Amino acid sequence: MRAFNFSPGPAALPEAVLEQARAEMLDYQGRGLSVMEMSHRSAEFMAIAETAEADLRALLDIGDDHHVLFLHGGASMQFAAVPMNLCAAGDVVDYIHTGSWGTKAIAEARRLANVHIAASSEAENFTRVPSPTEWRLTAGAAYCHITANETIGGVQFHDFPATGAPLVADMSSDLLSRPLDMGRFGLVYAGAQKNLGPAGLGVVVVRKDLVGRARTQTPRVLDYAIQAEHGSMFNTPPTFPWYIAGLVFRWAREQGGVLAMQRAVERKAAKLYTAIDESDFYHSPVRIADRSLMNVPFTLAEPRLDGAFLAGAEARRILNIRGHRSVGGMRASLYNAVSEKAVDALVAYMGDFEAERG
Ligand SMILES: *Cc1c(COP(=O)(O)O)cnc(C)c1O
After folding, report:
1. Which atom, in ligand 1's list, is nearest to the CA of 192?
2. pLDDT band for position 358 (cuts 50, 70, 90)
3. I want to staple 190 with a disulfide (CB 3.0 to 4.6 A). Which of 14, 57, 172, 250 is the partner?
């Protein structure tokens, strides 16, 4: 039996996707070889790549004015690729700082650009998203960067304000969880291993007019213009993760697309947050309006019970709910592939644990 997997990443994949990958593992569509074993330039893989891109474009309503790139290096590589491609060395870039992934994006950008922190919730321990009225944006900034969903702190942007400079969003843990108005964004990027597929792949959606101005020393594999020109195949792309992500995109479309994903995650998150809020034993540190629907951190009234809580969860096959080492407590990640049944099992367990030990 498959466990209830609340891993923050690499995270649960839809069972139907794993089944299909298994069925196609040794002999992809009668070709007598695995997707892992075929050339990225073969007709079979080109079809896989094109279908994946077409499905992602359909899911997020991405038009012709944006490139979609499938790249190595995960989200962290984009922490560097974004400034290398979108600004010159002395340019000012604005960052909104809402948690630990933002900290890392900022640290990387500081090596490459003149970073201005336009707003931060660090003083409140990253428990909220600063409202746009508090943002101090720089006139003429090359771009404004946000972390749409802070996977560790559980803080999520539920609205995207209009910014003068192109808006750049790290959506590693919430891309495909809701519809997006791509017209609002200059660039969106995500590591695949949270909500899109296996580790080893990053997706970049970038407005075409922002591409082609990478600084001259940018390594060519990181240059969006070069990757776009080569259909993300300037070098060998991560073919197997790309294929699995394609199966996830097809699955998401079959489920009803991003609106259906959004409704499902809203239901799951409502169940879990209600259980937390209705109890005196569990606590969510995040301001209600800014709570993440994807990653739900919570603490127990008595941290000395954390070990017993985790052990009891494992006994019920509820896995990977230990909070990040930087914040402690618990965290349940509710990505698209996590079923409502899994959330029901977690909520039931939380009730039983509180009744027994709380
Ligand atoms: C996991 C994560 C990252 C880092 O992703 P890698 O693919 O490991 O580089 C960056 N940003 C956010 C929001 C994440 O959740």
Report:
1. 7
2. confident
3. 172
Task: Please identify, by atom number, the ligand 1 atom nearest to the C-alpha of residue 199.
Answer: 7
Per residue in 172-183, pLDDT (tens digit) is 999 999 999 999
Report the distance separating Cα 275 and Cα 282, nearest Å: 8
Which amino acid does the sequence have at 69?
A: L
Half-sphere exposure of 130 (CA within 13 A, CB side): 22
- Domains 16-255 and 257-357 agree in fold: no
Lookup: tokens for 28: 């992809």
pLDDT digits (tens, 9 = 90+) for 293-327: 999 999 999 999 999 999 999 999 999 999 998 88
Is the minimum distance from the CB of 156 to ligand 1 under 6 angstroms? no
| The length of the chain, given as a count of residues | 358
Q: Establish whether residue 333 lines the binding site of ligand 1, counting it when its CB lies within 6 angstroms of any ligand atom.
A: no
Identity of the residue numbered 310: L
Q: Could you list the active site residues?
A: 101, 170, 194
Give the pairing type, strands 330-333 and 295-300: antiparallel
pLDDT band at 155 (very low <50, low <70, confident <90, very high): very high
The architecture that CATH gives domain 257-357 is: Alpha-Beta Complex (3.90)
Q: What is the DSSP letter of 316?
A: T
With a 6 Å cutoff on the Cβ, whether 76 touches ligand 1 is yes
Residue having the nearest C-alpha atom to atom 7 of ligand 1:
74
**Residue located via tokens 């931060």:** 120
Span 16-255 CATH architecture = 3-Layer(aba) Sandwich (3.40)
Residue 96: CB partners within 8 Å, gap ≥ 6? 102, 117, 118, 119, 120, 129, 130, 135, 144, 145, 146, 147
CB neighbours of residue 355 within 10 Å: 9
Domain ranges of the chain: 16-255, 257-357
What is the Cα–Cα distance from 4 to 261, expressed in whole angstroms? 18
pTM: 0.98
